[in-house]
Amino acid sequence: MANIKSQIKRNRQNEKRRLRNRVFRGEARTAIKKARVAIQTGDPEASKAAVLLAIRKLDRAAQHGVLHRNNVARRKSRLMKALASMEVKEVAAPAAEVQPEAAEAPKAKRAAASKPKAKEEAVEEPKAKKPASAEKKTAAKKTSAKES
């Protein structure tokens, strides 16, 4: 137990913050678990709704400083990646049954990608104009130089 007044107060503040932060962290953790379960079940609509809810909860936790923004970005990225891979598997499965020629298309793409490409001509972009205030200053300098 602390003897110094300021440390006693600091302990009280830390305890309040810990209890407040638990709410945001717990909601985010629960939403992530539900999103992962929804993705594993394979229902695209429920999965998307669960992932969006999890992202909302993660953003809220980052906004309050409970989780670091990079940590939140990493978790959101992983959720979106899992959701996208689930959607790709669902789309690929029916397409493979309908079109057996579609399986040969990636080989052609790989073969084309392995060939060296011709050098593309460099396209020069026009230079950005100076802001109006800079042009006025330059014009003022020129006129004052001519006068003297």
Structure overview:
There is one protein chain. By secondary structure, this protein is mainly α. It has a domain at 12-100: Methane Monooxygenase Hydroxylase, Chain G, domain 1. It has helices spanning 5-41, 44-63, 69-98, 105-114, 132-147. Helix 1 packs parallel to helix 3. The radius of gyration is 29 Å and the shape is flat. The N and C termini lie far apart (79 Å). The relative contact order is 0.07.
Briefly summarize what is shown.
It is built from 5 helices and no strands.
CATH topology of the domain at 12-100: Methane Monooxygenase Hydroxylase, Chain G, domain 1
Rounded to an integer in angstroms, the radius of gyration calculated over CA atoms is: 29 Å
Q: Per the principal axes of the C-alpha atoms, what is the gross shape?
A: flat
- Determine the strand fraction and express it as a percent band: under 5%
Mean pLDDT: 80
CATH classification class of the domain at 12-100: Mainly Alpha
- Terminal-residue CA separation: 79 Å
- Helix content, binned percent: over 70%
Number of contiguous helices = 5
**H/E element sequence:** HHHHH
| CATH superfamily membership of the domain at 12-100 | Ribosomal protein S20
Structural class: mainly alpha
Please mark out the parts with pLDDT under 50 across 5 or more consecutive residues, or reply none.
none
Biggest sheet record: none
CATH architecture of the domain at 12-100: Up-down Bundle
User: Total strand count, please?
Assistant: 0
